[in-house]
Amino acid sequence: MEQNTLAPYNEQTGGHEDTLFMVDDGKILLKLYPNTSQELGNYEKFNAEWHHYSLYTPHFYGTQGIDGKTFLKLENLTYGFTSPCVVDIKIGLRPFAPDASESKQRVQTKKFNATTGCSLGLRLIAMKRYEPLQKLNINYPKSFGIEITTKERLKAALRLFFSYSTEKLDSEILHQPQCSSYQESNADNFPMHSVFHQETVKQVLIKVEQLRDFFEKTPKPQLNFYSSSLLIVYEGNQIESQDHLPEPKVKMIDFQHVFERIPDTQAGKEEDGYVFGLQNLSSILQELLNKQ
């Protein structure tokens, strides 16, 4: 097999481009680079001494070499969905690992402080949603996520993510979706004519709270997750898939910077803010449900 014969993974939202590829049987390949090689070791630990975290991470099937490059073979979290809606949310209060250089820390901190990451411990990176009336996927790239600088905008974006329009959207929204295209004062009503997937959000909220409870009660070894994401996936075409609606998925991803909380080490002393981020995500989802 050669890399140029691999099919790109079209459901990717965040992360680096040209790193995810499709394979059969509900698996994907994640291309490793020299600066991401630590992710392999961390996935191997999720199958071994960190196995108690594996319920909340994609299943790891080992590695595959192609054209002299190493790929991780992982569970495809969108497998089994007809029209998956996907959102990538960074969780935690630190956008860099304890061993990052001072220059990288300065750059990452400046970017981080301009988002909701600093105040809420979570920031929306990118997302994709489905409009069943027009049978279209709408991608909201990183440029969309960068504009989400307040809690109200984040709540509005998640309200949008868990909704579909009951009327045709104009081409400007479809082709250039921007967070600034709606007003914060009207955030809870965007789009104006829409259906909110209330039952889906209830299921997602339960899973987020289960993950939060796990972190609060987790047995040793306890881990710190830096610059890690939470991936939420649900079925967007719920009109045609009512009889066999797959359960939403809430999984942790991006494990390049994972450290055991070992006393008297830099990685062990610093708080990653993961529980804080999960608490705020739970609160926002509950607020969205209370509005219905």
Automatic annotation (TrEMBL):
<dbReference type="InterPro" id="IPR005522">
    <property type="entry name" value="IPK"/>
</dbReference>
<dbReference type="GO" id="GO:0032958">
    <property type="term" value="P:inositol phosphate biosynthetic process"/>
</dbReference>
<dbReference type="GO" id="GO:0005634">
    <property type="term" value="C:nucleus"/>
</dbReference>
<comment type="similarity">
    <text>Belongs to the inositol phosphokinase (IPK) family.</text>
</comment>
<dbReference type="GO" id="GO:0016301">
    <property type="term" value="F:kinase activity"/>
</dbReference>
<dbReference type="Pfam" id="PF03770">
    <property type="entry name" value="IPK"/>
</dbReference>
<dbReference type="GO" id="GO:0005737">
    <property type="term" value="C:cytoplasm"/>
</dbReference>
<keyword id="KW-0808">Transferase</keyword>
<protein>
    <recommendedName>
        <fullName>Kinase</fullName>
        <ecNumber>2.7.-.-</ecNumber>
    </recommendedName>
</protein>
<keyword id="KW-0418">Kinase</keyword>
<dbReference type="InterPro" id="IPR038286">
    <property type="entry name" value="IPK_sf"/>
</dbReference>
